Amino acid sequence: MVIGLRDRKILRIALPSIVSNITVPLLGLVDVAITGHLGSAAYIGAIAVGGMLFNIIYWMFAFLRMGTSGMTSQALGARNLTEVVAVMQRALLVAILISAVMLCLQVPLREGALSIIRPSAEVVSLTCTYFNICIWGAPAALMLFVLTGWFVGMQNSKAPMAVAVIQNVANIVLSFALVYGLGMKMEGVALGTVLAQYIGLVSAGLFCIPYYLKIKKYYRKEAVLETSALMKFFSLNKDIFLRTCCLILVHFFFIAAGARQGDTELAVNTMLMQLFTLYSYIMDGFAFAGEAMVGKAIGGRMRSIYDDTIRHIFRWGWAVAALFTLAYLALGNRFLALLTDDAAVMEVAVEYQPWTLLFPLCGLAAFIWDGVYIGATATKGMLLSTATAMLVFFLLYFTLVPLWGNHGLWLAFVTYLAVRGIVLTLMRRKVWA
Question: For a disulfide at 324, which of 170, 257, 360, 395, Cβ 3.0-4.6 Å?
C-alpha cells in the first residue's frame, strides 16, 4: 500500500488511538487472566458479569465521547473556537450530573441487572463485591469520556493515548499488587480499576491545561448554557443514546444467554469475546480518525477531502481485517490458552474458536462507518442501522439457539455485526447529501 498525504494524516490520528484503545482490551485480558488462575470458573464468570454491567452503564453514556468528538471537530473546522470551548464544558457538566445520579441509584442498578442475568449464587456474590467497589469510579470514567472526545475532535489523539497508557498500566500494576501481593482477590481487581480511573482523570486534566490556556480567551459563559446549543447537544445525543441502548440489549442478552447455559459456557463466551474486543479497539483507531477528519471536513465545507478521507480509511480497514483473520486462524487457540489453565473450559473454547474468524470481515464496515457518521453528526443513520441489526439478532437467536445451542448464539451475533455495516453502507449518500 502506497502511503500518501491523506494516509499519513489518518495514521497520525489512528495510530495513537490504537495504542490508546489496545490498552483497554489488554486490561480486560489481564483481569480475566488474573481471575482465571484463582481456582474457579466462577471468578471468570464474575468478571464477565461485572464487566458487562459497567460496559452497559458506560455505553449508555457513550454520547459523552462521541457527541463531544463530532461537535468539537465540526466547530474546529468552522474555526468557531468559542464553540470548541463550550462543547467541552457542556459535556463535563452533563457527565458530573449523570455520575451523581448513578451513585445514588447504585443498589437498584446492581440488583435489577443481576435479577435479569440470573447467574449462579457464587457468581452473584463475587459480582456484587466487584460492582460495589467499581461504581465509585463512575465520575472519573464519564469525565474521561468527555475529555477523550474533545481531544479527538481537536485532531489530537496523542493526549488520549498517553492518558490511556498511564491509566491502564496503573490498573494492571495495582491489580496484580493487590491480588497477589495483598491477597485481596476480587476486591483487589476492583479497587485497582477505581484507583486507576482517577489517575487517568488527573492525567487528562494535566494534558488539557496547555490546550485550554491557548483558547480560554474564547470562553463565554452564555455560550455554554445557550439554549439552541444545548438543544442541539441533547438532540444529537438522544440518537446516540438510543443507538447505544440497542447495542446494550444485544450484548446484555448475549452474556445472559451464555450464563444460563452454565459457568463453563459463560467463561468460554467471555474469552472469545475478548478476541472480538481486541479487534474492535484496533478498528476504532481508524474510526476515530474518521470522526476527526470527516467532522473537520464537514465543518469547513471541504467535500473532496471528505470523500478522499473515507476511501483511504476503508483501505486501511480492509488491510487490518485481513491481518486479524490470518492471526486468529494461526494463533487463536494459543491465545485462548493464555487466558485459563482450566482444561474443561479450554476444551469447550476450542470448539467455538472458529467463530472468531468471522469477526474481522463482519465488523469492518460497521466500525468504519460509525466513525464517519459520528464525525458528520449523522446520528439518526447510526440509530437506524443498529436497531435493524438488533431485530435481526433476536430473530436469529430465537430461531437458531433451540436448534444449535451456543453455536446459534454466535451465528446471531456475527450476523448482527454484518447487518450494521450493510445498513450504514446503503445509507452513506445521506451523510452529506
Answer: 360
Non-local CB neighbours of 171 within 8 Å, separated by 6+ positions: 27, 192, 193, 195, 196
Could you tell me the end-to-end alpha-carbon distance of the chain, in angstroms, rounded to an integer? 30
Instruction: Look at residue 423 in the predicted model and tell me its pLDDT.
Output: 95
Contacts of 57 (CB under 8 A, 6+ apart): 102, 109, 138
Is the pLDDT score of 313 beyond 60?
A: yes
The sign of the CA dihedral 176, 182, 183, 185 is negative
Sign of CA dihedral 229, 232, 238, 239: negative
Confidence band (pLDDT; 50, 70, 90) for 201?
very high
Burial of 84 (0-12, 13-18, 19+ CB in 10 A): buried
- pLDDT (0 to 100) of residue 238: 83
List Cβ neighbours of 372 (8 Å cut-off, separation of 6 or more): 290, 291, 294, 310, 313, 378, 428, 431
List, as own/partner pairs, every contact residues 134-137 make where C-beta atoms lie below 8 angstroms and the sequence separation is at least 24, other chains included.
134/50, 134/54, 134/190, 134/193, 134/194, 135/102, 135/103, 135/106, 135/109, 135/110, 136/103, 136/194, 137/193, 137/194, 137/197, 137/198
Residue 1 has pLDDT above 60, yes or no: no
Alpha carbons within 13 angstroms on the beta-carbon side of residue 88 total 26
Max CA pair span of the chain: 64
| SS3 call for 3 | coil
What's the Rg (C-alpha) of the chain?
Answer: 21
Q: Name residue 217's amino acid.
A: K
pLDDT of residue 414: 93
Percent over 90 (pLDDT), the chain: 17
CA distance 53 to 182: 26
Nearest 5°: CA angle at 38, between 35 and 41? 70
Give 39's pLDDT tier (boundaries 50, 70, 90). low
- How far apart (Å, rounded) are the C-alpha atoms in residues 80 and 72? 9
User: Residue ranges of the alpha helices (H) in 177-262?
Assistant: 186-215, 221-224, 227-259
Q: Sign of dihedral through CA atoms 62, 63, 68, 74?
A: positive
For residue 137, pLDDT beyond 80: yes
Query: Which letter does DSSP use for residue 105 in this model?
Result: T
Asked if 99 contacts 201 with a C-beta cutoff of 8 angstroms, the reply is no
User: In the numeric block, which cell numbers belong to residue 204?
Assistant: 487528562
- Residue 386 CA to residue 249 CA, distance in Å, equals 11
> Which pLDDT score, from 0 to 100, does residue 171 have?
83
List pLDDT tens digits, range 140-187: 989 998 998 888 888 887 888 888 888 888 888 888 888 777 877 777
pTM: 0.76
Q: Would you give the distance in Å from CA 141 to the centre of its chain? A: 12
